[in-house]
Specification:
It is a single chain. By secondary structure, the chain is α/β, with parallel strands linked by helices. It has 4 domains: 146 residues, DNA polymerase, domain 1 (Orthogonal Bundle), CATH 1.10.150; 92 residues, Beta Polymerase, domain 2, CATH 3.30.460.10; 76 residues, DNA polymerase, thumb domain (Beta Polymerase, domain 3, 2-Layer Sandwich), CATH 3.30.210; 237 residues, TIM Barrel, CATH 3.20.20.140. It has 21 helices and 17 strands. Strand 12, helix 15 and strand 13 form a beta-alpha-beta unit. The structure holds one DNA strand. It comes from Psychrobacillus lasiicapitis. InterPro entries: DNA-dir_DNA_pol_X (IPR002054), DNA_pol_lamdba_lyase_dom_sf (IPR027421), DNA_Pol_thumb_sf (IPR037160), DNA_pol_X (IPR022312), DNA_pol_X_beta-like (IPR002008), HHH_MUS81 (IPR010996), NT_sf (IPR043519), PHP_dom (IPR004013). GO terms for molecular function: DNA binding; DNA-directed DNA polymerase activity; exonuclease activity; phosphoric ester hydrolase activity; zinc ion binding.
Length: 567
DNA sequence: GCCGTTTTCGGCCCGACTGTTTTCAGTCG
């Protein structure tokens, strides 16, 4: 028996109970028990007294004992025998929760999505108390939507929509302040919707402007403080706007940034002090409201340091507050070591890339165009690379405030060989190796390719180590823990590729790499000067993995970086 | 279902919106 199975079982029991229309506190007691186990860093073997944990009582404890003794939970088995599994997917229909689904099952014997659809079409659902024609119609529409709309949308698909909405909000005079919130602000890889907080004195006017000037496909809700719409575009996406007064803004931003678990912890902390947190402020014992100018002020009010949105997750952040000052921030970044120019498939000349990097205040960068093998990207031949080295050496003289290093993003070929000879690599300051081909090879072969790159003395870094595209492509499935071991043994850097398509390595591996003492680089892989901005999301994604400044190569001084690449 | 040196009963994070009601339950975040 492992911890994961216990957690999964408790969560499943909660789900089935919800579908029975059980008391919601009872349901959440099982969820809480699962969370207690999840948040405990110890493995099952290390936990000698699992039944004594706070949040685990007689019933949840019995489930755990059952699992430990017999390998199955008789409670879950009973529930699965009573509650048809076809009810589970119905929870995904917006507007339907446990209570309503239980009612549909009890009174109309609806036990699946298909049965529900038929019952709605036959207008049977509207005969139930609490349901009416409008609800019935809505259920049908939502079932249709479920089939056409993906559950979550990737961060790279959300980014242009956030920019579009922000540029619109900026033009509305009645808006005093605004910010994106929700999981997008926490840099989740994918989100169900986008949240915005708006401070305004004229909520009605702003509501009308939002509804009229945004590409609204559907209005989900439009109240005085909340506007919820589906926006039209390449990807249909739900967007929530919360309209508050300026003095409520910091509290609203904090509340709607979440996460839910983070908020619950904060409310518990407040409660212990006899205070009550809501999205409008903090209510004191005498009933008066405390307001804040910023989230920093809000946390300080509870004697907490500012907790960045990126780490507001499962509540475990509250036990790691001492690490917050160590986390990497954008201000720590001194350079970007993976970018392309017109020499391969970039949109700008080397000089333009240098100028844009200077504007960012960087002290050093590396130009890393593609290598010969990648013909589709106009990869550089040996001759062209030598010429580029010469060009960069000439350009170096022009600048005293930024160091330009020569480099390459060299392909690791399908047969495992490297695209350039050592003799050529030797002449470069910084060598990146990466895989762009034959993703479907068996893991053994992929690892052989990576091993060849890692053991080469002239290679400094492996870029986008898994090759994934968020929510779209899994990559080439390397054995990352082994790669991390190899990087450690051979003194290589692994990349956190900051392009929102990639965010590769992902957080679980970034954590592991830092634990093992492997240096990590955050690079934009920019093919356009506009993409240099991805350093920001890269750094914030790194925070999600609790990466420290000193782990990140980009925070090292020019001198330290020079020392490192010399070897 | 779980918890508790104010409590072993009565809370549980809190509030908005919708749809179905005629004062509120259910859902959602």
């Amino acid at each position: 028996m492992d911890k994961k199975t216990i957690i999964k079982t408790l969560e499943k029991i909660a789900l089935y109970m919800e579908l029975q229309g059980e008391n919601s506190f009872k349901v959440s007691a099982f969820r809480k028990a699962a969370q207690v186990l999840e948040l405990d860093p110890r493995s099952l073997a290390e936990m000698d007294n699992i039944l004594k944990l706070k949040g685990i009582g007689a019933s949840t404890g019995a489930v755990i004992e059952d699992l430990l003794n017999t390998g199955v939970s008789s409670l879950l088995v009973d529930l699965q025998n009573t509650v048809p599994s076809g009810l589970l997917p119905m929870l995904k229909i917006p507007g339907l929760g446990g209570k309503k689904i239980a009612k549909l099952y009890k009174e109309l014997q609806i036990d699946s999505m298909d049965a529900l659809k038929l019952a709605c079409e036959a207008e049977k659902v509207q005969t139930l108390a609490g349901f009416a024609a409008k609800t019935e119609k809505k259920i049908l529409t939502e079932i249709e939507n479920l089939q056409s709309k993906p559950e979550r949308t990737a961060v790279w698909q959300l980014e242009p929509i956030v920019e579009m909405v922000e540029s619109k909000l900026a033009t509305i005079g009645e808006i005093e302040k605004y910010s994106v919130a929700g999981s997008y602000r926490r840099v989740k890889e994918a989100s169900k919707d986008i949240d915005f907080i708006i401070a305004t004195k004229s909520p009605q006017e702003v509501r009308e402007l939002l509804l009229n000037e945004l590409p609204v496909l559907k209005v989900i809700a439009a109240g005085d403080t909340k506007v919820s719409v589906t926006l039209d575009g390449e990807n249909e996406i739900d967007v929530d706007f919360r309209l508050v007064e300026l003095h409520q803004y910091a509290s609203a931003l904090n509340h709607f940034t979440g996460s839910k678990d983070h908020n619950i912890k904060m409310r518990q902390i407040a409660k212990e002090q006899g205070k009550k947190i809501s999205e409008y402020g903090v209510e004191l014992e005498d009933g008066s409201m405390q307001h804040f100018h910023s989230e920093e002020e809000f946390y300080a009010y509870f004697d907490l340091p500012f907790i960045p949105p990126t780490v507001r997750e499962d509540g475990s952040e509250f036990s790691k507050l001492d690490q917050l000052p160590l986390l990497v921030t954008l201000e720590d970044i001194k350079g970007d070591f993976h970018m392309h120019s017109t020499w391969s498939d970039g949109a700008h000349s080397i000089e333009e890339m240098v100028e844009a990097s200077r504007a960012k205040g960087y002290s050093h960068i590396v130009i890393t165009d593609h290598s010969d093998y990648l013909k589709v990207a106009n990869g550089l031949s040996k001759v062209r690379l030598l010429k580029q080295i010469e060009t960069i050496h000439e350009l170096k003289n022009k600048y005293t405030d930024i160091e330009i290093f020569t480099g390459t993003e060299m392909d690791i070929l399908p047969d495992g060989s490297l695209d350039f000879e050592d003799e050529l690599l030797k002449q470069l300051d910084f060598v990146i190796a990466s895989i762009h081909s034959s993703f479907s090879q068996p893991q053994e072969k992929i690892m052989e390719r990576l091993y060849n790159a890692v053991k080469n003395p002239y290679v400094h870094m492996i870029a986008h180590p898994t090759g994934r595209i968020i929510e779209q492509r899994n990559g080439y499935n390397p054995d990352v823990p082994t790669l991390i071991e190899w990087a450690k043994e051979n003194g290589k850097v692994l990349e956190l590729n900051a392009n929102p398509y990639r965010l590769d390595l992902q957080t679980e591996y970034l954590k592991l790499a830092q634990e093992k003492g492997v240096p990590l680089a955050i690079n934009t892989d920019a093919h356009h000067i506009a993409q240099l901005k991805y350093m920001d999301i890269g750094v914030r994604y790194a925070q999600k993995a609790w990466l420290h400044k000193e782990t990140i190569v980009n925070t090292w001084t020019l001198e330290k970086f020079k020392q490192f690449i010399k070897k």
